Amino acid sequence: MDKQRIKELEEMIQVVLLAIPREISAREFYLQAAKKAVSDSSRLLFSDLAEQEKGHEAELRRILTELKTELKEARGH
Amino acid sequence: MKRENLKNYDGKDGRPAYFAYKGKVYDITGSKLWRNGTHVNRHHAGEDLTDFMSMAPHAEEVLEQCKIVDTIDDEVAEDIFIDRMDRLRDWYRRFHPHPVTLHYPMGLFYFAAFMQLLYLIFRVSAFESAAFYAFIGATLTTIPAAVSGLFSWWVNYQMTLTRIFRMKIIFTLVMLVFGISGCVLRFLYPGISAGTSPLSFSYSALVFLNVPALTIVAFNGGKITWPS
Ligand code: HEM
Predict the structure, then answer these.
(1) Which residues, 6+ apart, have CB-to-CB distance to B152 below 8 Å?
(2) Ligand 1 center–CA B202 separation, angstroms
(3) Which residues contact B44 (CB under 8 A, 6 or more apart)?
(4) Could you give the C-alpha distances from B3 to A24, B21, B77, B78, in angstroms and in order?
(5) Domains identified in chain A, total number
(6) Which candidate among A52, B66, B142, B148 keeps its CA 20 to 30 Å from the CA of B26?
(7) Mean pLDDT across the stretch B200-218?
(8) Which runs of consecutive H residues, i.e. helices, occur in A2-39?
(9) Which of these CATH numbers, 3.10.120.10, 3.90.1150.180, 3.40.30.10, 3.30.450.20, describes B3-83?
(10) From A14, A18, A55, residue closest to B54, measured CB to CB
């Protein structure tokens, strides 16, 4: 039971971990796009998208911390 | 207040509920939306919520109705640390040293094994020398590939030891041990490939075994770049 849980947690950590650099790259991409934008509406859209990626990154980091704590506890038992 | 004191205001057990947003500390004690210090089951009082606003269905204007009670005064030290990691990540993204350096051991280990194979079939000594030189090059260039990989692991993945990284690190060490042992053997016994002793067999085995070891390391690298 515990073994199964540990395995699930490890897999989830792997998924979340690999997602974080993607969000960072996406944000970087949108920020560059915002700089190149030739209209206010597209600049706004790209800045907005960049801001959202920051939110995704923050959420993922928080989930990662939670998962790591849970894994530590699961292993401790 | 100091950032570390913020967590004492978590809204639980009758404690006040504060959160930080862009350096300001807001008081939402008693708010129906923050019962027991928890907001929509997701955000917690006592934390800095700056980065989460973009995920919320409302804009930061909702904060205009909240009382500001303090500011976070250790912003500076925290900022410097985050900044440094961000700068390193930026640098990594721009120059991506791991994908640049890993091609040298990738190409050279395969080439060394191929040349050694040709030598064992045709017994032309030029093949054997080519294998040896390629093997030295491969072993040496494994070092920058490993260092840049570890660097990426540090800045991009907070050194979290998952299965993928465990495999990569173990088999990189295997490659280095096989590589260095092979180079030392061939250096001490220049005619080693020609013989039929266990030592000769070992040398060829080291040259060949680094191919699967390398493939495991690279395959796990690909899993990072193209996760399934
Ligand atoms: C301690 C050893 C190593 C660690 C921690 C490591 C870490 C990483 C990381 C984090 C990535 C994702 C791409 C990136 O961040 O740039 C990656 C990709 C990769 N690594 Fe490594 N690495 C190590 C050693 C090696 C070695 C020695 C080789 C080859 C000889 C290698 C081959 C690859 C390959 C082929 C990829 C995929 C690259 C791509 O998709 O462009 N790694 N590695």
Answers:
(1) B92, B97, B98
(2) 28
(3) B10, B19, B37, B38
(4) 25, 11, 10, 9
(5) 1
(6) A52
(7) 98
(8) 2-36
(9) 3.10.120.10
(10) A55
